[in-house]
Design brief:
The protein contains 15 helices and two strands. By secondary structure, it is mostly helical.
Length: 380
């Protein structure tokens, strides 16, 4: 036991972690650090001075790293918060949006009482806009001149975190619309619907709320088409489109909203026809007749009404179809087309008609037989 203890002490002494064989060297190391501390190398003030000098020289990334070192070295929370803020600003100047976002998150988490919370939360939305615009930070700083070596897209992460920090900020609804579009492309319909509903609820009179109503109605209508057992999606979509037409009577999207309402009636009528077919296959003609009668009575302006009448005749020979059926409106969205205006002069002269001014014709390469001034010549 004593031998093992001696061996452990000797190994620690050899590493120089606690003891040193040379007492003079043991005293010289603290003296050297003390001298460097006097010069401000290990003080946060000295690190801050170095960071500001790097920033003045235009080296924003290294300045940001030096500000982070000053944050660690500082003991005062105010100085730590200020150093972190300068680091975030330097990362922003270097177009390193991801690093700036990470620093801002740490500031909001650790120094919330010493920073401008609203301003930093708004900055997070700006960083989300940076990624939404298609911009990326370089994957490797030393290879930042290579355009295709870029970092990942962090738009969703930043927007989601910004919404938790400032859910009712002036940029929140726009971020929710963009997130909803992203989640729809990723087939995450439930998350997209939640964001759209928040926009409709929180900002019904804004431009974001206007487009959220249309987007939410379209998504719900598509879900109703795929299968809507209790009709909840269908009725909510109809309510949204009806409110939109009432609230924005002069909006150019009204024609499209009207087409969506007609489409919703088709979807609901087809749903009832499918239920009637299911009942008929199981021998429940009475239940099938009720569904088909509802289609004929409530959705007479849909294409499914005629098909329902034919099926009702098969079930009940005494049924007489209505000869005066309403006209079925066009479901196809129409757009007004305009001709391109005539140009005053030719935009592009084809090579064959330019008399060799712009490009030589493909067949005239200067080799082989060549026609010049009506005489046939041969290039040698």
């Amino acid at each position: 036991m004593f031998g093992r203890l001696c061996l452990a002490v000797l190994s620690i002494c050899a590493s120089g972690a606690v003891f040193c064989a040379d007492p003079g060297a043991a005293q010289a190391l603290p003296a050297e650090k003390a001298a460097e501390t006097e010069r401000g190398v290990f003080r946060p003030e000295g690190l801050l001075n170095e960071a500001f000098a790097l920033r003045e020289a235009g080296n924003h990334r290294d300045a940001a790293e030096k500000f982070l070192e000053a944050e660690v070295a500082a003991s005062d929370p105010v100085m730590r918060a200020n150093a972190a803020g300068e680091a975030a600003a330097s990362f922003g100047a270097a177009k390193l949006a991801g690093r700036e976002f990470e620093v801002i998150e740490r500031m909001l988490e650790n120094y919330s009482g010493y920073v401008d919370y609203a301003k930093l939360a708004a900055r997070e939305y700006d960083l989300g806009d940076f990624y939404y615009a298609g911009k990326r930070e370089p994957a490797f700083w030393s290879l930042r001149f290579v355009p295709w070596l870029s970092g990942p897209d962090r738009m969703v992460e930043i927007y989601e975190k910004a919404l938790t920090r400032a859910p009712f900020g002036p940029q929140a609804n726009r971020a929710r619309l963009r997130l909803a579009r992203y989640y729809l492309n990723e087939a995450k319909n439930d998350v997209a619907i939640a964001h759209l509903r928040e926009v409709v609820k929180n900002a019904p009179d804004s431009s974001e709320g206007k487009f959220a109503m249309l987007g939410l109605g379209e998504v719900l209508l598509e879900l109703a088409r795929r299968g809507d057992g209790d009709g909840r999606y269908h009725y909510e979509a109809v309510e949204l489109f009806s409110k939109f037409k009432e609230k924005y009577p002069d909006a150019p999207e009204n024609d499209w909203a009207e087409k969506q309402l007609l489409r919703s009636r088709d979807i609901r009528a087809q749903r009832l026809v499918d239920i009637a077919d299911f009942y008929r296959k199981n021998g429940r003609d009475l239940a099938a007749e009720r569904c088909l009668n509802e289609v004929v009575r409530e959705y007479s302006d849909t294409p499914q009404a005629s098909a329902s009448e034919r099926k009702l005749v098969q079930i009940d020979r005494s049924f007489v179809p209505d000869p005066h059926r309403p006209e079925i409106k066009d479901r196809v969205q129409r757009y007004e087309a305009f001709r391109l205006p005539e140009e005053e002069r030719k935009l592009l002269v084809s090579p064959d008609e330019s008399n060799g001014k712009y490009l030589l014709p493909v067949y005239d390469l200067g080799i082989g037989p060549k026609q010049t001034q009506g005489k046939k010549e041969t290039n040698r």
